[in-house]
Design goal:
The complex is a heterodimer of chains A (about 190) and B (about 425). With about 190 residues, chain A is mainly alpha-helical. Chain A has 9 helices and 6 strands; from the N terminus they run αβααββααβαααββα. The chains are: A mainly alpha (about 190), B mainly alpha (about 425).
Chain lengths: ~190, ~425
């Protein structure tokens, strides 16, 4: 399919953002509309350049990395996953849904104390997060850099649709556990 | 017997109160005192006698009826409820068992029609055929009404306050799915009650038509039977469409609740695994790989140094042949001098991009010479020039990123200086 480059006005900016690992979602007003209207063209263009553009139907785009490029980000991914799992559990204990993380206006910085002070402290130490400042600098600020969150008026952080990637981890774990249980029941 | 016009007139005159009662007590009843209070709030400054007149007018035309065994509590007449619901476009989901009961009754009516044909009783035939047609119309109306009700349930669920947990918000969606959609799917599937009854009634009707064709008996009534056949086909089509539509409306919401619950359970599972076996066991970095821009030629943080060293492990130098001292090979570079290039430049002026010009005209020259000539032409004030934007240039061996120049003309030195 021929690529109509004159329709891809933001291609340089979009390429630059995706290349640094950023996830573009609908809150990125300057890039998302062009990506979503020209999705196939962008996919073809990036494919020619050797990149796999993932177009997630839940409203975000990112480059799927080759194996070699993600070595240095193990800790980052682990920290992101840890905070998402913890937030889901905290909000579930308050009677709220996981979707609440996405749909709430923002997660206030004052909630960080709640996270660090109770049963999650030892868990966070596993990913070298030791206090509220670490939660902000090592997790949430990094989440902003990768497009998983955006800062909210200095009061907290608003989560973005790409955190569905971590919700998917929860779904997969649940499925794997159910499958294991089913196998064990069949064998007994 | 209540006069229809009186009912309509009361509905018109007391619509505000009736609509309010519909909102408040559609599925329940109201005590006399509460009713009294409601009317006072809706008609402020009304006197006691006026309130009593209003209540009387509603009771007289059976819009409100006393609850069985409790004359001090009242409920809205079910027929009025249905009519008001229709007018307000508010549909309440019926029971799947109601449809099943209607459908089973069709079978009974078809048998009675067949009997009437056998005994040759034309009046009985017309009576039961008419009732069959009416019943089928009732089923169609009920299915369409239920479809609208499902749309309303889904809308309400989606518009509900998002602070309320999903399971609560979607409670009616889940119960509608379990108590209406699933039984209806079973009923309407091939070999379900609906399908079996429709087949049976269709066969009966077809036999009747065949019999009257052969015997020439009750020919005038054959039209009624054909009409019933057509109605039956319409009923089947509406049933399948309504069920399909209901499923389309509710299934995504039901799945949302399921997914929600699964995510919560999955997160707790994940944290339990992390506590027992450590975060590394979950293999998050492979489940959610994040892209890091590969910086092959730049080292910065310790992580990229590690990666660089890791990359060096596989490094193998490419063998290179050094030229011998007495080599007869003449390098192309020795043939061309800077002065010669300079003469060509002057002849070619103006030049839009000096770097491009050098690469195009001296493609076989080594990159260092190209760069050296570029530097010499663009240094100083020998030429009138304008700097261009940074871009990449490609020699036969290298990619160079720089800001080139457009050269307009040669500046000759002033002999008087």
């Amino acid at each position: 399919m021929p690529i109509q480059t004159d329709e891809l006005k933001q291609v340089a900016n979009i390429y630059r953002e995706l290349l640094r690992g950023y996830h573009i979602s609908h809150q990125d007003h300057e890039w998302y509309p062009e990506l979503s209207h020209n999705q196939e063209q962008y996919q073809n263009l990036f494919d020619l350049l050797g990149y796999q553009l993932v177009c997630d139907p839940r409203g975000f785009y990112y480059f799927f990395p080759e194996e070699s490029s993600s070595i240095s980000l193990n800790k980052t991914a682990q920290r992101f996953a840890m905070i998402i799992f913890i937030l889901i559990e905290i909000y579930a204990d308050e009677g709220k849904d996981p979707q609440f993380i996405l749909e709430s206006e923002y997660i206030p910085c004052s909630d960080f104390a709640k996270i660090i002070k109770n049963k999650y402290q030892k868990l966070l130490e596993q990913v070298e997060v030791f206090n509220e400042q670490d939660i902000e600098s090592k997790i949430f600020e990094k989440m902003v850099k990768f497009g998983f969150a955006s800062e909210y008026m200095g009061r907290g952080y608003q989560m973005r649709p790409p955190i569905h990637r971590f919700f998917d981890v929860c779904l997969d774990l649940h499925k794997e556990t159910q499958a294991k249980v089913a196998v064990e029941e069949t064998s007994t | 017997m209540i006069e229809p016009k009186k009912v309509l007139r009361t509905l018109l005159n007391r619509w505000d109160i009736i609509a309010h009662l519909f909102e408040q007590i559609a599925d329940s009843s109201i005590a006399l005192q509460e009713l009294h209070y409601l009317i006072v709030t809706l008609i402020p400054q009304s006197e006691q006698s006026e309130v009593s007149n209003v209540i009387d007018s509603l009771l007289k035309v059976d819009i409100l009826v006393p609850v069985a065994n409790n004359p001090n509590r009242f409920e809205i007449n079910s027929v009025i409820m249905e009519f008001v619901g229709y007018l307000k476009n508010e549909h309440r989901l019926g029971l799947s068992e109601e449809i099943e009961a209607y459908v089973k009754h069709l079978e009974l009516l078809a048998n009675k029609i067949a009997q009437a044909i056998q005994t040759g009783e034309s009046s009985e035939f017309v009576k039961y055929a008419g009732e069959l047609d009416r019943r089928m119309r009732d089923v169609i109306k009920k299915l369409q009404h239920d479809e609208k009700a499902l749309e309303g349930i889904a809308e309400q669920a989606k518009m509900a306050n998002k602070q309320i947990p999903l399971r609560q918000r979607y409670a009616e969606v889940i119960s509608s799915w379990d108590e209406y959609i699933e039984p209806m799917v079973e009923m309407i599937n091939p070999k379900g009650v609906f399908d079996r009854t429709v087949q049976l009634v269709e066969n009966q009707l077809q036999n009747i038509i065949h019999k009257t064709d052969v015997v020439g008996f009750l020919i005038d009534e054959v039209e009624i039977v054909r009409q019933a056949q057509a109605r039956m086909m319409e009923m089947e089509k509406v049933a399948q469409h309504s069920l399909k539509r209901g499923t389309e409306i509710l299934l995504p919401l039901r799945e949302e609740v399921r997914t929600n619950n699964t995510i919560t359970q999955g997160a707790s599972l994940a944290l339990a695994i992390i506590r027992k076996q450590g975060i590394g066991y979950l293999n998050v970095e492979n489940r959610v790989p994040l892209l890091a821009l590969s910086q092959k030629n730049v080292v910065g943080s310790s992580a990229s140094i590690e990666k660089y060293i890791h990359g060096l492990r596989g490094f193998e130098p490419t063998p290179n042949r050094f030229p011998s001292r007495r080599s007869d090979r003449k390098s192309l570079d020795k043939v061309i001098t800077f002065d010669q290039v300079g003469e060509q430049v002057i002849k070619s002026l103006p030049i839009a991009d000096i770097m491009t010009w050098l690469i195009e005209n001296y493609a076989m020259v080594s990159t260092d010479n190209i760069i050296e000539w570029f530097s010499m032409f663009t240094r100083g004030d020998s030429f009138q020039k304008q700097r261009l934007t940074r871009k990449d240039y490609f020699t036969k061996t290298h990619r160079i990123s720089l800001r080139s120049y457009q050269i307009f003309g040669k500046i000759y030195a002033n002999s008087n200086r």
